[in-house]
Amino acid sequence: MRARFWIVASLGLAAAALLGVALGPVGLSPAAVWAALAGHGDTTTVTIVQAIRLPRVALAALVGAALGMSGAAMQGTLRNGLAEPYLLGVSGGAAVGAVAAIAFHWNTVVGVPLAAFAGAAGAAALVLTIARIAGGRADVRLLLMAGVVVGAFANAAIMVAYATAPPESVRGALWWMMGSVDGAEWQRVTWLAAYVVIGGGALIVWARDLDALALGDDGAAALGVDVERASRRAYLAAALLAASTVAAAGLVGFVGLVVPHMVRAAGLRQYRTLLCGAAIVGAALVISADVVARTVRPPAELPLGAVTALLGVPFFLFQLRRLAARS
Amino acid sequence: MTAAIEFRDARVRYAGAGGLAVAGVTFAAQSGNITAVTGPNGSGKSTLVKALLRRVPLAGGDIAIGGVTLGQMSLRDAARRAAVVPQREEPAFPMTVREYIALGRFPYASVWSTSDPGGDRAVTAAVERAGVGGFLERHTDELSGGEWQRVRIARALAQGGRLLVLDEPTTFLDVGHEMAVFELLAELARDGMGVLLITHQLNLVARFAQHVVLLHAGTIAAQGPPNAVMTGGILERVYDWPLVVARDPAVGAPMLIPLRAPSPVTVHRPMET
Amino acid sequence: MAFARRIAVPASTALSLAALAACGSGSPPAARRPLSNADSPPVAKAIVDDFGDTLRTPSGPPRRIVSLNPATTEMLFAMGQGNHVVGRTRWDTYPPAALPVADLGNGLRPNVEAVLSVHPDLVLLYAAADNRDAVGRLKAAGVATLSVREDRLADFHRILSLLGAALHDSAAARAVDDSVTASLARVRASTAGLAPVSVVWPVEIAPLRVIGGGSYLNDLLADAGAHNVYGAMSDPAPQVSLEDLLRRNPSVVLTTGATVRAMRSDPRWQRWLADSGHRVLVPDTALVGMPSVRMGAAAAELVGLLHPGVVH
Questions:
Q1: Do C180 and C292 fall into the same domain?
Q2: Are residues C160 and C229 in the same domain?
Q3: How many domains does chain A contain in total?
Q4: Full domain range(s) for residue A38
Q5: Contacts of residue A47 in chain C, CB cutoff 8 Å?
Q6: How many distinct structural domains can be found in chain C?
């Protein structure tokens, strides 16, 4: 069962990447795409394939991998199958940063990702600090409560920004909040790759802690795990991954929530393999969602977050059926 | 002979609390014995386990496992010597019983895995000991209360230490399963394991424990063999409820019989006299 | 499922705002032409504005006009009605004679109290969904309102004649109209024989939106001897993908200074711009930003940028 999963997942990722390069609002023949990948053909086609589609596929893959791993880690540290990467301040803080940058017309290519990342990181740190001041420990319930506090503050700040910003910039801010790999170019891909390698690598090294944490705080302590340190650093790595995806592509929801469940359903339970599986499945999912977003209504593009949000419907229906079957 | 575990003037204060939850507790649990720690709710029983797990820091005194204080050993080391079965433990995501028991080898495994190469033998032995061989492939959320408890004990056994600490292991079990757990603990103690048991079940403590520690408001009210500790006077004072200690007809162990409340504190008025 | 709400709140806010914007971008209903051609008819006439509301003018022409729309402000002054304008938005800075007029704030979601404080008898608003509330409140206060919206060149002519009817001065309106039409005709003549230059006019980079066929700028571009590669799309400012834009390969990019900066820092734009020697031109935003009385000058400016050397 497991070997089959890896084969299917890898093939799925490869297929999605191929589709991502071959399909788009501009119809290109496979031969033209193939030639363009090698650098031959008219400059427009080469630019489209090499400078627009390839970086998009790469960015989408990285975003999906990061969100899949981050979601798996969050569900492990919070011991809750409904946890997702944007919890605990990350999405609110990132949105405040990005909306502020857009409203004040800071350079959109560099300024917005930077501001979004700073906002996300700041909010995550704030959540940890509030929880620590309140209870002295990284207790899960305190973390969640602190996350609610920071999230509420972020929502208020965003609304004030929308209300006072010039109207023409509001649309851009809204667009950002719905998520998109539209701005993909190689520089952005590079720094996102660095974050994914660092954050994802850290999680994979600490993966066994997550296996122990799944038993509960006392159960993990009984196995010799420093519960507070293990959950805090796993949470930080997960938050770093989530913050970097938000900086690169805005809010792409439901991927981090759904992917770990898909991988668990395929039989992967140990965190080291679960994380790797989540990275592959997440990458394939986001690439596919981006293909849909680009080809459904050309030449316009749907926001990526809108397509991934549709994932939520079957997921929650499935959870509902499972709950009903249990009780 | 060094005790399997020893609490020496242990003190614990919870963050934000006024007084000490555990205020100078000193006792030892020997290998080959079942030592029961009992007492009313809030007397500090579970706090002792939390201190052992280092979930709360000791405000004073120390805890020694096999003669070595906690401060001198890492968390991993402690987990190898003392296997704790905490009160509450429920895997957030279902796993098979086999996988769960194998987690008992966690303290021995390297960074890259949750199990060690020599661990298979230990796991098999633990499975046999706890008698859970029949449901290894079932998932942890499919087990009954009794089955789950035995599986948890199996996991603790797989940890390979000479000390087993259990916090309220029989709370939700029916009499048959409860007795089965106690019998298993007795067997383990007979084979040389040190068993430290936190429990409410005074009557079973009287039957199975060699050493009883009675806690009251964070200090030890009495400790010793069951006959010495379980007397009407001591228990009535500690539990603040009228009771009588008799001898049970089966084996003659002390048996606790709580009395109905005296008249001024009537809880139920009969409809008709 | 409080966790899902984290996504749901911004998403549903976004969706509802998008829906509202979509409502706002519907095309306005056609206005009915006044029945009589007389300049100051003593009888009340029915004039229907772009919200579908009917304006019943009193027996005399309005004497205290608040114009919450830069386009209508310009039109009023061009028609010689400047001395009757008692309020404008902060964005209305042309002609210079408009500057002394009271600045009443925004044209979208205006401050109704501020408007009422200058005691207007006619208020001109921009016909966007955001302003329906203000229209309702002004009407409730007994003030006549006229809401207009210009997307295409044809709207300009239509709205001028609406204004002429509302102000009982159709002759002045016709004069302004003729003057603008004439200047546009001159521009068109000057570029008549030239090969059209293919252009794209991005107004926003993220998301990428460009001027489409539904905008007056498209009409101006046609007069200025240019071919808007997105002219076939009926939207005034449709959203398009970068791929599609590169595919259509316009030779000129017209845009604002801010968008140019964004383009220059984006490697994909840079690569395309560098490769094929495309030109990036920045027209005067104040001039081309609005479909009003200076459209002739705006078209001429475009000619100057696109076809340097042509006399216009």
A1: no
A2: no
A3: 1
A4: 2-326
A5: 246, 268, 271-272, 275
A6: 2
C84 & C119 share domain: yes
Contact B111 A269 (CB under 8 A): no
Chains B and C touch (3+ CB pairs under 8 A): no
Which ipTM did the prediction report?
0.88
Instruction: State the sign of the Cα–Cα–Cα–Cα dihedral A137, A143, A147, A148.
Output: negative
- Host domain of residue C202: 193-306
Q: Does residue C291 sit in the same domain as residue C239? A: yes
Q: What is the pLDDT of residues C280-289, one digit of tens each?
A: 999 988 888 8
Q: C3 at the A interface (CB within 8 A)?
A: yes
The chain C residue lying nearest A88, using CA atoms, is C3
Q: Give the residue ranges of DSSP H helices in chain B.
A: 45-52, 75-81, 97-102, 119-130, 145-158, 175-190, 202-208, 226-229, 232-239
Partners of A224 on chain B (C-beta within 8 Å) are: 74-80, 106-107
**In terms of domains, do C104 and C225 share one?**
no
Q: Are residues C54 and C173 in the same domain?
A: yes
Show pLDDT as tens, one digit a residue, over chain C (312 residues). 444 445 444 444 444 444 444 444 444 444 444 444 444 544 455 788 888 888 876 667 889 999 998 889 999 999 998 899 999 998 888 888 888 888 888 888 888 888 999 999 899 999 988 888 889 898 888 888 999 998 888 889 999 999 998 888 889 999 999 999 999 999 999 998 889 999 999 998 878 999 999 999 999 999 999 999 999 999 999 999 898 998 898 999 999 888 888 888 888 888 888 876 788 999 988 888 888 899 989 999 999 999 988 776
- Asked which of C162, C185, C208 is the last residue of a domain, the reply is C185
CB of A180 within 8 Å of any CB in chain C?
A: yes
The residue type of A205 is: V
Kindly state whether residues C65 and C174 are assigned to the same domain.
yes
Q: pLDDT tens-digit profile of B97-108?
A: 999 999 999 999
Q: What is the CATH number of the domain that holds C253?
A: 3.40.50.1980
**pLDDT digits 0-9 by tens, C238-247:** 999 898 998 8
Q: Is residue A87 within 8 angstroms of chain C, CB to CB?
A: yes
Q: Has residue A320 got a pLDDT over 70?
A: yes
Measure the CA–CA gap between A122 and A117, rounded to whole angstroms: 8
Do residues A225 and A58 make contact, with C-beta atoms less than 8 angstroms apart? Answer: no
CA–CA min distance C17, chain A (Å): 9
Average pLDDT, chain C: 82
Chain A contact for C260 (CB, 8 A cutoff): no
What class, spelled out in words, does domain B1-66+162-241 have in CATH?
alpha beta
Asked if the C-beta of C17 comes within 8 angstroms of chain A's C-beta atoms, the answer is yes
Residue C3 lies in a domain: no
C24: closest CA of chain A, how far (Å): 14
Question: Taking CB atoms and an 8 Å limit, are B92 and A75 in contact across chains?
Answer: yes
A182 and C207 within 8 Å at the Cβ level: the answer is yes
Long-range contacts for A156-163 (Cβ within 8 Å, ≥24 apart)?
A157/A96, A158/A92, A158/A95, A158/A96, A158/A99, A158/C10, A161/A96, A161/A99, A161/A100, A161/A103, A162/A99
Find chain A residues with C-beta within 8 A of C236's C-beta.
none
